[in-house]
Amino acid sequence: MKTYTVNELRKMFLDYFESKDHLVLKSASLVPHNDNSLLLINSGMAPLKPYFTGQTIPPKNRAASCQKCIRTGDIENIGKTARHGTFFEMLGNFSFGDYFKRESLAWTWEFLTEIIGLDPNRLYPSVYLEDDEAFAIWENEIGISKERIFRFGKEDNFWEHGAGPCGPCSEVYYDRGEKYGCLSKNCTVGCDCDRYIEIWNNVFTQFDGDGKGGYTELEQKNIDTGMGLERLAVAVQDVESIFDIDTMRSLREKVCALALKEYGSKDKWDVSIRIITDHIRSATFMISDGIMPTNEGRGYVLRRIIRRAARHGRLLGIQGTFLVGLGNEVIDGSKDGYPELNEKRNFINNVLKQEEHKFNSTIDQGLSILLEIETKMKNEKSTELSGQQAFKLYDTFGFPLDLTIEIMAEKGFSVDVDGFNAFMKEQQDKARKARKDSNYMGADPTVYEKLNPALKTEFSGYLSLDCQANITALTTDSEVTEALTDGQNGTVITERTCFYPTGGGQNGDCGIIKSADGEFLVSETIKLTGDKIGHLGKVISGMLKIGDNAMLSVDPDSRNDICKNHSATHLLQKALRLVLGTHVEQAGSYVDKDRLRFDFSHFSALTDEEISTVEKIVNEKIAENIEVHIETMALAKAREKGAMALFGEKYGENVRVVEMGDSVELCGGTHVGNSSAITAFKIISETGIAAGVRRIEALTGRGVFEYYWQIEQVLLDVSRSLKSTPSALKDKVESLVNEIKRLNSENESLKSKAAKNALGDVANQAVDLGGVKLLAVKVSGVDMNGLRELGDQQKERLITGVILIISDNDGKVNLMAMADEKAQAKGAHAGNLIKAIAPLVGGGGGGRPGMAQAGGKNPAGIDEALSEAEKVLRTQIAGGE
């Protein structure tokens, strides 16, 4: 049998189904779209859910794809065996109410045996035990003897997830030969060994389940198939595991070269090599889809797998940072199927580099903390690290539990894993409660799901802010309705609209929809599934009903300001790339009528000079009167022009290109006709929002004038308060600052003099306590600084002594004690003295042997505290002797 590479197998599959009149879909982003049930795309059908549920009409009833997927449910076991990985590619062909079992199974067999060339005698189908139809197709139409067709129960061959579409499935197993088996006489399809592997699964979605065991036949039956590309390659290339197929073997060998270790020579090394090989694939693809390392959600998944790979690099003895080189190996091996990897190479490298550097710092910090804990445990003769401490290391410092267990075991300690799991469960429960409710297909249940999926809205708002259209649907907050009346909130859907819906970072339009019988104030415009646009708002007079012809009018001032802000973001991105470098990529944006916000990839805060330069470049472009050219063209042509694209955005064959001088971007938003319409641009803030992501907020047009008007009002108000003018304000403020400094100095001098006068000549009040003099006095109105100054003055008058001064100052109490070296030698301790008497004035405090202070809030206890001080000092001296 001829062998094929992973890239060849992917192409062969897609080409085959294209020849069967399937629309070949590009892999969707790993970031789910409108699906709260998933953190990351984990199957080929996941991005196609709206087509299966009927919420959206598919572009074609037959489709095929190779979908990148990530599953991390058993991440702790990845690497321990060679069976699974976190990242995989899922080949799939799909029918949305078109063909069914007969075609699906026939094409499965034809592709595996005639296109790929697998030996038919080594292929074994399985069916659901009650699916006689599929059994008959395999036996009578495809020609497989019934002894080689296996019937399995619901657990293995019936696909369902709660209530909703479900059905039986038919899997195809491949016999890899005895060398991969368990050598048992009973070894056959379904055995847990690696001889018989499932390579293709055909799901026949033919029932609607109620979630309680009841099923009704679906009017529209669907086909959803899945075949793991890596598993197929294992069979075709006749290799041990997914880590031995061509693309992963190349990556695995790179890891071995870095570690100076041979794969297969030591089980412990093999685990680490497999973990690094798998995790760097996941990390590279996740970053290419715009996912950034964070401490929550999918960003935390990315951070965890990067750090896990980095840690296992250390365990293998790899010196320094190494993930960037492995990431480039992933890119080179997969760029044929996923060209976006190569386009984002620099960005991927930067993210990997930064995160690996952070982890190296983190792990050193964690090891240091563990060392402190070990020392404390030894002193306390404890043998087990508490679950709380282990969880804190994990949660705060990203220190993996298995590493904690391993290190502690080396020192002879155990770890309370149950306690750790309890804290982990508590955290997970909190996170689960915080998640949104979702239905069985993952989308938020909303009234819009009840709308006719055939309804569409044509957008005409690029050229005009007014249009006429018929109302095709109306909803309240909870139901589809025939009409909306005065005072009701709801959504209006029309066959055509000039209102731009929120999307691509641009806030939707607001305005008015007016029919012969009523008027509707639009406060928000949104995209709905199936190319519909919803106008959200409130009926302000009369009523609107389905079928009414209405005039739609966008608020021109709001739209114009939005256009200014949106066009400015394009100029801003170009300026940032000129000033900071071409690694700058848009990571998100938001524009409305009031301001713009632009998120971009950069790994340090901008300097004042960089911000000023960027702002200057944008304003220069505004002043150049640049015509804005907008054109729809083929995606390939747009890329040739150097058009910038957005992370995670899906583009069709034809794209809209917005060109302003040397700024060229793919963009579906609304823009000014000439850069001069923006008028002015002002950056008002620059901050960091995530690892490697910065955010700029800025104003344009009248927003800039409003910003400076407010600053001018503050200047005028301050000038009037200081009896000055804006032009003379700087000199006036400098003069006042100097005057305040002079007055503060004079005030401190007066306070010192007043404190001295308040104390008077008290040296003769000192009491001799066994060779140590105690001067304990009270004063009024002296703060802590004044007490210390008084203490220094009196200390010079005592030969060997302790000074205690207590002040009643505005209803509060200040205590200060000093003990010279000779007094300390005899046992005096200022800190312990203050600690003993402070509670008598409602306070607490302490300090060093030579000087201590405290505060209190009970002036009535001052005399008692002074009296108690003599007793405390006598005890100290007696103990010192």
Number of helices: 24
Class from secondary-structure proportions: alpha+beta
Main beta sheet: strand number and arrangement?
9 strands, mixed
N- to C-terminal separation? 98 Å
What is the number of beta strands? 34
The Rg value, from CA coordinates, equals: 37 Å
Index terms:
881 residues; alpha+beta; 26% strand
Q: Layout of helices and strands, plus pairs?
A:
Layout: H1 6-19, E1 23-25, H2 49-53, E2 62-70, E3 87-96, H3 101-115, E4 123-128, H4 132-141, E5 150-152, H5 154-157, E6 158-159, E7 164-175, E8 196-209, E9 215-228, H6 229-237, H7 246-259, H8 267-288, H9 297-315, H10 323-334, H11 340-343, H12 345-379, E10 384-385, H13 387-397, H14 401-410, E11 414-415, H15 417-434, E12 458-459, E13 466-475, E14 480-481, E15 483-485, E16 489-494, E17 496-497, E18 511-515, E19 518-528, E20 532-545, E21 549-554, H16 556-580, E22 586-591, E23 596-601, H17 608-623, E24 628-634, H18 635-640, E25 654-660, E26 663-666, E27 681-690, E28 693-700, H19 702-721, H20 729-759, E29 767-769, E30 772-780, H21 784-795, E31 801-809, E32 812-819, H22 821-825, H23 830-837, E33 844-847, E34 851-856, H24 862-880
Parallel strand pairs: 1-2, 4-5, 10-11, 12-17, 30-31
Antiparallel strand pairs: 2-3, 3-9, 4-7, 6-7, 7-8, 8-9, 13-14, 13-16, 13-21, 15-20, 16-20, 18-19, 18-21, 19-20, 22-23, 23-28, 24-25, 25-26, 27-28, 29-30, 31-32, 32-34, 33-34
Protein model, in words:
The N and C termini lie far apart (98 Å). Helix content is 39%, strand content 26%. The strands form seven sheets. Strands 1, 2, 3, 4, 5, 6, 7, 8 and 9 form a nine-stranded mixed sheet that branches. Strands 13-16-20-19-18-21 form a six-stranded antiparallel beta barrel. The chain has a six-stranded mixed sheet with strand order 29-30-31-32-34-33, with helices on both faces. The chain is of the alpha+beta class. The model is unreliable at 434-444 (pLDDT under 50). Strand 31 (801-809) and strand 32 (812-819) form a beta hairpin.
